[in-house]
Amino acid sequence: MKRFTHPAVIGLALFLVAFLIRSAGVGWGLPDDRHDWSYHPDEPVIWSYSRQVKPAEGKFAPGFYNYGTLYLTLLSVSTDFVNVYGGAPDPKDPEAQVRALGKYHLAGRVLGCLAGAGIAWVVFLILWSRTHWVGAVFGGLATAVAPGLVVHSRFQTVDVPAVFFLTLGLLWCLRIQGADKVRAAVLAGLFFGLSAGTKYTGLLGLLPLAVVCGMERKWRDLVAGAGVCLVAFVVTTPGILIDNAKFMRDFLYEMAHTSEGHGLVFAGTAPGFLYHLTNLFIGFGLILTGLGLAGLGRAAVKRHVWAVALAVFFVAYFVLIARAEVKFLRYALPLVPVLAVGAGWIVGRAHVHPNRRWVGLGALGVIGLGGIPGGGLLTTAQATMAMVGKDPRDVVVDTFIERFKAGDDRTIGLVSDPWFYTPPFYRQVGLPRAVPFDSRRQTMIEEFGPGLVQYLPEDHSQRKNWDVRLLDLKPGYVVFSSFETEGLDRVAASGRDPGPFTAQVADYKAFVQKLQAEYDLDLKEPYLPAAWAEVHDMMYVRPTIWVWKRKTGSPTPPSGSSTTSGASVTPVPTR
Fold first, then answer.
1. HSE (CB half, 13 Å, CA atoms) of 144?
2. What's the rounded Cα separation, in Å, for the pair 45 and 335?
3. Are 573 and 448 in contact (CB under 8 A)?
4. Confidence of residue 497 (pLDDT cuts 50, 70, 90)
5. Residue 550 burial (C-beta neighbours within 10 Å; 0-12, 13-18, 19+)
6. Positive or negative: CA dihedral 37, 42, 43, 49
7. Which of 24, 296, 319, 492 could pair with 342 as two cysteines, CB 3.0-4.6 Å apart?
8. For residue 528, what pLDDT is reported?
9. In degrees rounded to 5, what are phi and psi of residue 129?
10. What is the largest CA-CA distance in the chain?
11. What is each CA distance from 536 to 148, 163, 262, 465, in whole angstroms?
């Protein structure tokens, strides 16, 4: 029996459970025979920059430093692995290129799934020697089913791998206590450096390292760990030295961006301190967050070195992201394993506490683990079903195909430049914004024809979203997504001065008023009561798409009123 309760066996079991959960939706939104670009807007950009990194050729400068370079290097290696064992695509075969891009993204997502599952194992190891094994398993499971970590593990992005390295650093950092050798500090510094080389916030791992070394009076360990951290950071992001001008440009841009905001996405939202609590409630769970804070607080008051170190990290990191104007849920992900440790510790203590009233705390933990009233397994199951099922964008296109076959009006109005959020009426709809607008527009005309209507002034650089003049062109339908309405409804309904968004809100209100007068809401796909559907970087997997149909009896649109092209209208052409 003992061999089945060995920490390695339990940890491996947690890892496998967490990995299986993440693998369920890992194929969501990949390029296919309908759309050539991933439904996640960051994936093509990250992958394209990863191809600038060629370890075998000694090339380690991607020319892109919004993040560290380690994940780009791993992604480049995984792409080469796919080409070697799956066969490189024929550069003259467009279909093969699309299939290959999907495989490359999938390989990067598998890296994220492995990292996400690894976090659950590491949280379990942190707890194993600090509480009852029930609490250690609880903490690992809470991490395994945390909705925010699960969903982001399925993306080819830097966030979850960065959290994995950070959590490994915390594991070794907390092992410094009582150790006679500097090995634990060196390993902690190494993993904190790898985390920073993936995403710069990993450098905050030096704070718990300083706390542990300070409380244990192990200053040599602190110097060794900090030194290794900085070396690992520079080695994994050598652009600091060999491409310094571009590094400083992108690094400073990232710092300025977080302080200035992200357009309308977070306009009119609660202050960061409240907003990120909501992110934790959604991405981890209301009850689990409460248990995590209670556990960390109680253990820190008892002056457990590990708890003090984790509490200092939690407070410092939370203050950092709470002061920023950009409030993505993914920014709060490094706090999830810390909260899981706190929750696991207090549940383990409740399991062995002589006062049987503490049993209720364990029961509360089980309820939170299940996802009541939110987070946990329930929200993860909802998100997984969304990622496994048919995407709303595809549902809308299927609807139009059937309507076009029946002879319905073939003109569709778009309120903004088509992108990842637009139903794939043509295969290149997700072309990155780095491609010049006129090139993207020409591709749209060539693939679909004049039926996709977007109002364009003579000077295309003066185009704007929600231009009411689009409705003067009388398209048969108007289609838009929750990404295009994001922030506008909130700011418009607040009654407060829109400030820098005054013109945009005015355009939106005028457009909606005319739309409601001349069109009927025909389709809203899908209906999602889950709170996570309103979070920007969880909404990727299930945006809401609205289809409005021109009312019967409205005047016929004038000839040549849409984008100019002599091509015929063909819905969702295939190669």
1. 25
2. 26
3. yes
4. confident
5. buried
6. positive
7. 296
8. 52
9. -95, 10
10. 85
11. 12, 20, 11, 19
Helix %, strand %, coil % for the chain, to 5? 60, 5, 35
- Of the CA atoms within 13 Å of residue 120, those in its CB half-sphere come to 32
Q: Is 180 helix (H, G, I), strand (E, B) or coil?
A: coil
Helix (H, G, I), strand (E, B) or coil at 54: strand
Cβ–Cβ contacts within 10 Å for residue 145, how many?
26
Each residue's pLDDT tens digit, 520-531: 999 998 755 455
> With helix as H, strand as E and coil as C, how does 199-249 read?
CHHHHHHHHHHHHHHHHHCCHHHHHHHHHHHHHHHHHHCCHHHHCHHHHHH
Residue with token string 């490359």: 104
Tokens of 484: 């295009």
Token readout for 129 is 């020697």
**d(C-alpha 71, C-alpha 78), whole Å:** 10
Please write down the long-range contacts of 503-507, taking CB distance under 8 Å and 24 or more positions apart: 504/264, 504/464, 504/465, 504/466, 507/464, 507/465, 507/466, 507/467, 507/468
pLDDT in tens, 312-330: 999 999 999 999 999 999 9
Residue whose structure tokens are 């398209």: 475
Burial class from Cβ neighbours inside 10 Å (0-12, 13-18, 19+) for residue 512 reads middle
Helices (H), 425-472: 437-448, 469-472
pLDDT at 452 over 90: yes
CA-CA distances (angstroms) from residue 281 to 147, 149, 329, 535, 536?
Answer: 10, 13, 10, 12, 15
Quote the tokens at residue 240.
Answer: 């600091």
Count of other CB atoms within 10 angstroms of residue 252: 11
Is 60 exceeded by the pLDDT of residue 562? no
**Phi/psi of residue 11, each to 5°?**
-60, -45
How many angstroms separate the CA atoms of 13 and 141, rounded?
10
Q: Which helix (H) or strand (E) holds 31?
A: none
Distance CA 132, CA 258 (A): 40
CA dist., res. 41 & res. 19, Å (int) = 24
> For position 561, what pLDDT does the model report?
39
What is the 3-state secondary structure of 395-432?
HHHHHHHHHHHCCCCCCEEECCCCCCCCCCCCCCCCCC
CB-based contact 487:466 (threshold 8 Å): no
Supply 448's token pair: 């679909």
What is the distance between the alpha carbons of residues 354 and 344, in angstroms, rounded to a whole number?
18
Looking at residue 50, its pLDDT comes to: 96
pLDDT at site 180? 61
**Token pair of 5 as six digits:** 């309760």
DSSP 303: T
* Token couple for 534: 């309103």
Q: What pLDDT, in 10s, does the model give residues 135-155?
A: 999 999 999 999 999 999 999
Q: In whole angstroms, how far apart are CA 173 and each of 128, 153, 207?
A: 15, 24, 10
Residue 278 has pLDDT above 90, yes or no: yes
Q: Do residues 348 and 334 make contact, with C-beta atoms less than 8 angstroms apart?
A: no
